[in-house]
Specification:
It is a single chain. With 503 residues, this protein is an alpha+beta fold. Helix 9 packs across helix 10, helix 9 (272-290) runs antiparallel to helix 14 and helix 11 runs parallel beside helix 12 (374-385). It is built from 17 helices and 21 strands. It is 31% helix and 22% strand. The longest helix is centred in the middle third of the chain and has 19 residues, at 272-290. The strands form five sheets. Strands 3-2-4-1-10-9-11 form a seven-stranded antiparallel sheet. The chain has a six-stranded antiparallel sheet with strand order 5-6-7-8-12-13.
Length: 503
């Protein structure tokens, strides 16, 4: 899971991309990068860290141009600590292509070997994004051989990418001197939305991971990029679109609605906020069927993604909703922090319990999901230390029993608390007096009701069904490697240098 954005405008876009990345910061906190294009020259700055830390005034001044793209990174493949694997990625032929990618390729290893043996292209990192940009570059070169670059050539190349690449991918790329390309995998697993400037329909055009990035920067979301579709915007602002996949189907990632996306976003016609309200309603039914509501004194969410579900649940069971935890907003999201030790240590830094909401009460804690269980265990203990008489836990999502290979950091079965364990065993591990989970079928039903045009969901972490068909529940994806910074310093630096480095 990453956040990506691309813009074509009639004025400098560096500040606009920066603002959009701030709105997408929840999708990745490991690294950030921006590329802008002036004429046929590209300017890049990327580094590890949050957006506000990566980009200083001197960096922004070194990013001229009225076309650009950016990304906030959350690593699921390659090296989590390498700045070389921060996006965007660049290749100089053909034309010069810069690319950002949200998702995870499931056949990256095979493609890497194929690129070396057949396409004669060298991959210098462990990032699947570098694999993807080289596949795209090779296919553009093949499709455009002996012909000028045109939308037909670009769409033919994207069709070839779809035939070669497996997994999830929402992509935005700049082609130097030509324009901006955006496309989405044939299953529409990762989100991508297209829109225009609200002030001037012919002015700025933007593509981003979530509608919040458009709306928060003064743009109007027009539509989602369809599964398998490619959109090419030339430098004159003309929009060309074509379906490039043979059998596309819309199966967005369910975890976007459960946790990943901001509640004020709309993904594939589904309000994330309303989806979470609906999940709270069905969770309330599970609670009522599990225990008498009279045993619950108060419903408390675990900030922040669970709030809509907790509010709806409290209303349905007729119990007061209270904010019992104060969140430190300057600590990152624990789920997307690389490394279990860092994640566990940050829980108490991130949350602080208010004793007046817990003391002497039977408390129902509501979380969006329970993945590894260590965070839930810490929070249950915090509630007890704050004076709760009994602590019940409810999850707005079903048990996470299977690895995710499409861009979410839950790659191995051994890390998942629900894998191979009963609900009672999980309850005992986290220390709760009762544990209630969402039902898988109910979850799918109430979210799909918000947009009946959805063909289904990518919900493999809950049901073990991998929609791309090339992965089984028994297989595992490699974790984003965690190397020491000292090791990274020894890596060869074959990257596009920023304007500041060249001056």
């Amino acid at each position: 899971m990453c956040g990506i954005v691309g813009v074509i405008a009639q004025a400098p876009v560096n500040q606009l991309i920066y603002d959009a990345l701030l709105l997408l910061q929840h999708r990745g906190q490991d690294a950030a990068g921006i590329v802008t294009m002036q004429g046929t020259q590209c300017f890049m700055h990327k580094a590890r860290g949050m957006v506000r830390d990566v980009f200083r005034t001197r960096n922004m001044r070194a990013l001229p141009g009225d076309v650009g793209l950016g990304q906030v990174r959350y690593p699921t493949a390659g090296n989590a600590y390498s700045e070389e694997e921060a996006q965007p990625f660049y290749v100089n032929a053909p034309y010069g292509i810069v690319l950002v990618h949200n998702g995870n390729l499931t056949n990256a290893a095979a493609l890497k070997q194929e690129l070396f043996d057949v396409d004669r292209r060298h991959i210098n990192t462990g990032s699947d994004t570098e694999v993807l940009i080289n596949v795209l570059a090779h296919e553009i070169e093949r499709a455009g051989r002996d012909r000028p670059l045109s939308p037909d050539v670009i769409f033919a190349a994207v069709s070839a990418v779809h035939r070669r690449v497996r997994g999830s991918y929402a992509v935005i790329a700049l082609i130097a001197g030509h324009g901006l390309l955006a496309f989405r995998d044939p299953y529409g697993i990762r989100p991508l939305v297209f829109g225009r400037s609200s002030a001037d329909a012919g002015g700025e055009l933007m593509v981003a991971s979530e509608t919040v990035a458009l709306e928060g920067t003064g743009h109007r979301a027009e539509r989602d990029v369809a599964p398998g579709e490619a959109i090419f915007i030339d430098l004159q602002g003309r929009v060309h679109a074509r379906q490039c996949a043979e059998a596309p189907s819309l199966n967005p990632c369910m975890f976007e609605y459960v946790y990943l996306a901001r509640p004020d976003s709309v993904i594939d016609g589904v309000s994330v906020y309303q989806a979470r309200l609906n999940l709270g309603e069905t969770l309330a039914q599970r609670v009522i069927s599990t225990m008498p509501p009279s045993e619950i004194d108060v419903v408390i969410p675990i900030p922040e993604s669970s709030r809509p579900s907790a509010m709806q649940l409290a209303q349905k069971i007729g119990k007061p909703y209270r904010e019992g935890f104060v969140k430190n907003r300057y600590v990152g999201r624990t789920f997307i922090m690389p490394g279990q030790a860092v994640r566990k240590r940050s829980v108490r830094q991130k949350l602080n319990a208010m004793p007046q909401e817990f003391k002497g009460r039977n408390v129902l804690l509501v979380d969006d999901s329970i993945v590894r269980g260590t965070t839930s265990k810490e929070i249950v203990q915090m509630a007890r230390e704050a004076g709760a008489r009994k602590v019940y836990m409810a999850s707005a999502a079903p048990p996470v029993r299977y690895p995710n290979v499409y861009g979410i950091d839950m790659p191995t079965k051994e890390e998942l608390i629900a894998h191979g364990r009963s609900i009672e065993e999980i309850r005992h591990f986290i220390g709760a007096d009762a544990l209630i989970y969402q039902d898988v079928d109910a979850m799918k039903r109430v979210v799909k009701a918000l947009n009946p045009r959805l063909d289904g969901f990518e919900a493999s972490c809950f049901d073990g069904v991998y929609i791309t068909g090339d992965v089984s529940a028994a297989s595992a994806a490699p974790r984003a490697a965690a190397r020491d910074d000292e090791d990274d310093a020894q890596r060869s630096r074959l990257a596009l240098h920023s304007a500041a480095e060249r001056s």
